[in-house]
């Protein structure tokens, strides 16, 4: 029996840097994920408006996963920690002063989930960070999303702490993976 869950082979898959002309397709994927998360009781992606996504694209830190020229995934990769990080978060890392990259907005449109595209984007983020001589790849996530947390743990991420982020009124888990 063929395991179609992990089968990407039959399609043309590529990752490219997002451009402003990709706003509609990028926002569509992010918005689909926000709706899907909301149905599961998590509203942590509701803050991503079209204008905010455009700002992220303009920062040259968003990448898109395309399957047969259709945008089905996004990831934001930055050396700058997200704005809601504070000194207490930075102190909790295994090696706070080591060079690290942070990824956010890892999104795969719901009708393309379970096909390995998220793993493809994480692998891309790891290689990107390694090529920039980073020692760590870091993330935040909604801690109540146990399947997602297990997914990251399976990919060798270690969660260092959790806290309620002021201004967002969300509890987040802070995780990292050593790359070197």
The neighbouring-strand order within the major sheet is 1-2-3-4-5-7-6
**Tally of alpha and pi helices:** 5
Query: What would you call the quaternary organization?
Result: single chain
Q: Helix and strand succession?
A: EHHEEHEHEHEE
Q: What's the level 1 CATH class?
A: Alpha Beta
Number of strands: 7
Tell me the strand percentage band. 25-35%
Per CATH, the superfamily is Gcn5-related N-acetyltransferase (GNAT)
- Uncertain stretches: 1-8
Q: Which range best describes the helical content: under 10%, 10-25%, 25-40%, 40-55%, 55-70% or over 70%?
A: 25-40%
Organism: Belliella marina
Enzyme class: transferase
GO molecular function: acyltransferase activity
EC number: 2.3.-.-
Q: If you had to describe this structure to a student in words, what would you say it looks like?
A:
It is a single chain. The radius of gyration is 16 Å and the shape is globular. Strand 6 (158-165) and strand 7 (170-178) form a beta hairpin. The termini are far apart. It has 180 residues and is of the alpha+beta class. It is built from 5 helices and 7 strands, in the order E-H-H-E-E-H-E-H-E-H-E-E. The longest helix has 17 residues, at 23-39. Helix 1 crosses helix 2 (50-58). The chain has a 7-stranded mixed sheet, sandwiched between helices. The chain has helices at 23-39, 50-58, 87-91, 117-131, 146-154, and strands at 13-17, 62-67, 70-78, 100-108, 136-141, 158-165, 170-178. It has one domain: Gcn5-related N-acetyltransferase (GNAT) (Aminopeptidase), CATH 3.40.630.30. InterPro entries: Acyl_CoA_acyltransferase (IPR016181), GNAT_dom (IPR000182). Keywords: Acyltransferase, Transferase. It is an enzyme of class 2 (transferase). It comes from Belliella marina. One of its GO terms (molecular function) is acyltransferase activity.
């Amino acid at each position: 029996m063929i395991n179609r869950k992990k089968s990407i082979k039959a399609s043309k898959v590529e990752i490219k840097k997002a451009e402003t002309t990709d706003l509609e397709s990028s926002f569509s994927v992010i918005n689909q994920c926000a709706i899907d998360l909301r149905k599961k009781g998590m509203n942590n992606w509701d803050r991503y408006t079209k204008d905010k996504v455009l700002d992220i694209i303009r920062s040259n830190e968003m990448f898109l996963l395309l399957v047969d020229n259709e945008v089905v995934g996004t990831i934001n990769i930055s050396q700058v920690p997200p704005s809601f990080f504070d000194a207490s978060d930075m102190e909790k890392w295994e090696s706070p002063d080591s060079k690290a990259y942070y990824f956010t907005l890892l999104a795969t449109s719901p009708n393309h989930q379970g096909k390995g595209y998220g793993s493809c984007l994480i692998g891309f983020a790891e290689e990107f960070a390694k090529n920039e001589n980073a020692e760590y790849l870091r993330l935040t996530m909604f801690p109540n999303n146990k399947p997602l947390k297990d997914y990251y743990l399976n990919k060798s991420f270690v969660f260092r702490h959790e806290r309620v982020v002021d201004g967002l009124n969300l509890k987040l888990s802070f995780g990292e993976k050593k790359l070197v």
